[in-house]
Design brief:
The structure holds 2 protein chains of 2 kinds. Helix content of chain A is about 70%, strand content about 0%. Chain A is built from 7 helices and 2 strands, in the order ββααααααα. The longest helix of chain A has 29 residues. Chain B is globular and about 70 Å long. The longest helix of chain B has 30 residues. Among the domains of chain B are: about 160 residues, no CATH class; about 150 residues, TolB, C-terminal domain (Neuraminidase), CATH 2.120.10.30. Chain B contains 6 helices and 26 strands. In chain B, strands 17, 18, 19, 22 and 23 form a 5-stranded mixed β-sheet that branches. In chain B, strands 1-26-25-24 form a 4-stranded antiparallel β-sheet, with no helix packed on it. In chain B, strand 18 and strand 19 form a beta hairpin. Chain B is α+β, with helices and mostly antiparallel strands. The chains are: A mainly alpha, B alpha+beta. The interface between A and B is large, with 53 and 42 residues.
């Protein structure tokens, strides 16, 4: 694979290392955002093939993760543009281990996670971009800002607003649930 | 209910109490924790990670060797005064190359050759539906087309998909076939009401991966109808003759009474005045053309002889391959096999079904404990030649005369133990069974499609695994025969 390059964190990084470090984040990000897991995997392959072809021209102006996620995010945007459909993430099964020994706790965790995923679909697109890059792509705020071409403070603000909106949506749903009950 | 007071929780009440507690402590940390848990609900494809790593390494190697070649060329600049030595060197290289070529030709004619399988690459996986995905390829072999749930799907060499070409409401596209020159596409169209027709689409010379999707959408609207199919009949296995003058296809009711037809599209006139351009080649399915277009190999299915009462679930049908002359209809039995594909290299690939045993667990003494016996398909290849008239007479093998016995193994439709096997093993272990047992699953584990690519450098295969269909490419190479598997 292509020869080693210098990234901004002052370390030698080969494409193999980049692949090993970032595959999970890229694949998870695309699987989270793309409604069809097969398409998500195809897009993952396309991202890394594109990245390998362009790796020699990477000059280290930004962290290599930012550079890769720019490719990844643009690939996703192109894909969604070609589909011209809304994202439906409900197809991906909620299969998390709640980490709790209590069945009630586990049930509630799963229910809340499913509810949260539903809410995530309804928030504005720029909120979703930030949330997915933060939690699926494991990027820092500074890196998200570089991927999306925004300032770091703007990204932090969007993140804060997204969480606040999610909280109010979940509160509203819980309120409705209590009234129904 | 009173007795169970300590065992039953009122989830709504508990939820409410929990909500109040959260409000007191602040909801944001919990939300952040949940966001991290949402992340854990998205699984990563570990198989893809390894396959893609290999693919990237291969591409990198290819790019590296190309770069090295370019560098060598760049270094070799002509120097004044060095010409006479270079001239001698050049002559020597040419002589050596000619000598090597001669040796190769002599060896090739004297040493028996066989097709050997190389790397297998999974191109894509699809959610399975009731139709068999039979891909077709452009002449360069770089663009693949197949139908999925009635829509046309294009894939590039790495399995990357374009947006499906969806037919008008109530219609379906089936069994596309790219002409050998790449300028035409034949396919079946199922109309509203279920009747089918074979249509022909002309493609411009300058199509490529980027613009083909749009071109297809436009071209399909103006497709020419080649053949109306009788109501109730289904078309499958549409395939062009290597010279691009005729199409062969199967038509019939699914599961019986299928016949192979030839549809002459041009270049050749109907055999006599008044005779239809379409004619039947007799019963059979999955036709494949000989490279010289004078004959076809077709598959015919027969009821299997009744097996022993205590034996495993044998196949209920036996498939045999027949060589049928296109002009005279004269037939020759080639042997048992299915899904034939006659490549431009003269090799016939086919699927051979055999009862295979898989050992799931072993006893302490090393002998098999729980095993699965299942009919499993293997893709094999034998050399028939490029001319149907030169196909050797079959040899006697056991009870039947066959040309297909001992074909070189190219691929196996093996799967890893599935949910059924694991559940069976779990039950045996729970019931304390320790002695050897064998499971005979009813279904056959085989390929649904195999076919050579345009230049016969690889074989495309489709097989089912669970609810998915796996489309792969097996690279093949002709080498001196070492031994038959």
């Amino acid at each position: 694979m292509p020869s080693a390059q210098m990234d901004t964190e002052k370390e030698i990084l080969s494409f193999e290392e980049l692949y090993d470090r970032q595959f999970d984040a890229v694949n998870r990000y695309l699987r989270y955002r793309v409604p069809d897991v097969w398409d998500a995997d195809d897009l993952t392959a396309a991202v890394f093939i594109k990245a390998m072809e362009k790796f020699h021209s990477f000059r280290g102006e930004a962290p290599v993760a930012v550079w890769l996620f720019r490719i990844c995010h643009n690939t996703y945007v192109d894909y969604m543009r070609s589909r011209r459909k809304t994202v439906d993430i409900s197809e991906v099964a909620v299969a998390a281990d709640s980490g709790s020994d209590q069945p009630e706790e586990a049930y509630l965790h799963l229910e809340e996670l499913a509810q949260l995923r539903k809410q995530l679909e309804s928030i504005p697109l720029d909120y979703r971009d930030v949330i997915s890059l933060r939690y699926m792509g494991d990027l820092k705020f500074r890196q998200i800002a570089q991927v999306l071409g925004k300032t770091e403070s703007a990204v932090r603000m969007i993140h804060y607003r997204a969480l606040r909106l999610l909280r109010s949506l979940m509160d509203r749903d819980r309120g409705e649930c209590s009234r129904d009950g | 209910m009173t007795d169970n007071k300590d065992k039953v929780t009122d989830i709504e009440g508990w939820k409410k109490a929990k909500g109040e507690k959260n409000d007191e402590e602040g909801y944001l940390p919990l939300l952040l924790q949940h966001m991290r848990k949402v992340r854990d609900t998205v699984p990563v494809n570990n198989v893809l990670r390894e396959e893609l790593r290999r693919e990237l390494a291969r591409r990198s190697r290819m790019a590296g060797s190309a770069a090295a070649g370019a560098a060598e060329t760049a270094v070799e600049q002509p120097r004044p005064g060095a010409m006479p030595r270079r001239k001698w060197l050049f002559s020597g290289i040419v002589c050596a190359a000619v000598l090597i070529a001669l040796i190769f030709v002599v060896l090739k004619n004297s040493v028996p050759m066989a097709l050997e399988a190389g790397e297998t690459r999974i191109l894509s996986r699809f959610r399975a539906d009731d139709t068999v995905p039979a891909p077709t390829f452009d002449p360069a072999g770089s663009i693949m087309m197949l139908t999925l749930r009635g829509s046309l799907l294009l894939l590039d060499e790495t399995g990357g998909q374009s947006e499906p070409v969806i037919p008008p409401p109530g219609e379906k596209y089936l069994c596309p076939a790219w002409s050998p020159d790449g300028k035409q596409l034949a396919l079946a169209r199922q109309k509203e009401g279920g009747s089918q027709e074979i249509i022909l689409v002309s493609l411009p010379a300058d199509y490529n991966w980027g613009n083909l999707n749009g071109i297809l959408r436009a071209a399909l609207a103006g497709a020419k109808v080649l053949q109306e199919i009788a109501p109730g009949m289904n078309v499958s296995s549409l395939t062009w003759s290597p010279d691009g003058t005729a199409l062969a296809y199967t038509a019939g009711q699914r599961g019986g009474g299928e016949e192979v037809y030839i549809l002459e599209t041009g270049g050749k006139e109907a055999k006599s005045p008044g005779q239809e351009k379409t004619y039947s080649l007799g019963p059979g399915r999955h036709p494949t053309w000989s490279p010289d277009v004078s004959a076809l190999v077709v598959q015919r299915d027969y009821p299997a002889p009744v097996a022993g009462a205590s034996g495993p679930a044998e196949n209920k049908e036996i498939s045999r391959l027949w060589l049928v002359d296109r002009e005279t209809g004269r037939e020759r039995l080639l042997g048992e096999g299915s899904l034939p594909s006659w490549g431009s290299n003269g090799y016939l690939a086919y699927v051979d079904l055999k009862l295979k045993e898989r050992v799931l667990s072993y006893l302490p003494d090393g002998s098999p404990q729980f095993t699965v016996q299942q009919l499993t398909g293997t893709a094999r290849a034998v050399y028939l030649g490029k001319k149907a008239s030169e196909v050797k007479p079959p040899v006697k093998s056991g009870e039947a005369e066959t040309l297909l016995k001992g074909g070189q193994l190219l691929a196996t439709a093996d799967t890893s133990p599935g949910a059924v096997e694991l559940e069976w093993m779990r039950r045996l272990e729970l019931n304390g069974v320790r002695e050897p047992r064998t499971l005979y699953p009813g279904q056959t584990n085989t390929f649904e499609y195999i076919g050579f690519g345009p230049d016969a450098r690889w074989l495309a295969t489709c097989r089912r695994e669970g609810d998915t269909v796996i489309l792969s490419r097996v690279f093949v190479d002709e080498r001196p025969l070492k031994g038959v598997e």
